[in-house]
Amino acid sequence: MYDVIVIGGGPGGYAAGIRASQLGARVALLEPTHIGGICVNRGCIPAKIWMQAARRKRMIERADVFGIKAKIETIDLQAIVDRRNGVPSDLQMGMAGLCKSYGIDVIAEQGILQNPREVKIEGKTLEAKKMIIATGCALQVPDIPGMGEAAMTMDDMLGMTQVPASLLIQGAEAMDVEMAVIMNTFGAKVYLATDGARILPREDGNTSQRITKALREQGIEVLPRLTLESMNKSKGGYEAVLSGRENKTLAVARVSTSTRRPNTDLGLDQAGVELDEDGFIAVNDHLETSAEGIYAIGDVTGGWMLSYAATSMGVTAAENAMGQTSAFNSNLVPGVFGPCRKRLRWEFRKKMPIKWTWMLRLAIVPWLLTVWPWLMMKWTGISR
Ligand SMILES: Cc1cc2nc3c(=O)[nH]c(=O)nc-3n(C[C@H](O)[C@H](O)[C@H](O)COP(=O)(O)OP(=O)(O)OC[C@H]3O[C@@H](n4cnc5c(N)ncnc54)[C@H](O)[C@@H]3O)c2cc1C
User: 232: CA distance to ligand 1 center in Å?
Assistant: First the structure.
């Protein structure tokens, strides 16, 4: 019998496994695909590779300000894709090695809970005193008429060797903004539409406003209060029909959305684990689910849906599984946001006590008052 079985090997599950092992547990980590989860294999890391490529392209384009006359001859998208594939596989090796050094049994199987103490994998059942669910989310194409054929998924974009002439991104989360910048930098005409009043709804209004301005300066059309209704095939691509503050049609080659659905198809009923009203696993501050001895962490619990939040939750859940009393403070999740190398944000997250918000406001420093923009040729960022 294991002390702890972790189901899912993303940034949450991986951290939970290591922390439990550090505290003396015998640990099994179930991961049917690649260790590192969405973050390493299909999300943060591949997106950052593309962002780095975009950044370098923009730096070369603006190098003349520093007296360097350079011209980009060709852009080899396949080389970027090779790097996008290579870095995750190096990271996977490192992560697998670290798990091994901690004595964690990494099992390449999908787990299905049978009850709070047993999980079924291909051909056998494993038993543990405590379970930690870290199954994350799956990206899905929403059920919008005409969407199927027109859709360019995140995977498509992160593996592209051809850039579409134009792209409508319906969504306003950080990853949508990041993809908008990447696609725009490599030559697509990008429309970024959101049903909300502004992009980046999880950030404060000021950050959202600054980034909207920067995106518009780059030529990205930011379209608030517009919802995609349908995609209709037209001569050169698609006609995207949007409604909201006005009725609008856009001629685009492809469309993308980043809808995420929690991976909850793992026998939760059989183990007595309940979901919240949005379909995520419900947890308290100690990351306990409704079933005694089962914890849940990361994207499958909703909330911030960020890697470092998942990792921090993993540590907390492992400590609690090993008899400690730790709480996850969702008010203290740091954030860095720099989709266009023009804006960087680093702050304690919102939903914090009012007095802290005041401290935060006092600490805002416009980059214009520092040496930074003069070096970087970027004028409108702030630090806080
Ligand atoms: C394009 C993109 C860019 C992103 N950029 C950032 C960023 O810059 N910064 C940031 O903080 N976050 C970013 N994110 C979000 C980040 O990837 C997630 O928040 C993070 O991966 C969540 O970690 P997790 O451990 O909860 O789940 P995941 O990383 O989703 O891992 C879950 C794992 O569980 C496995 N699994 C599922 N079901 C089972 C089962 N039944 N049995 C066993 N294993 C199972 C899956 O195979 C998967 O590997 C990005 C996401 C995307 C899509």
Answer: 32
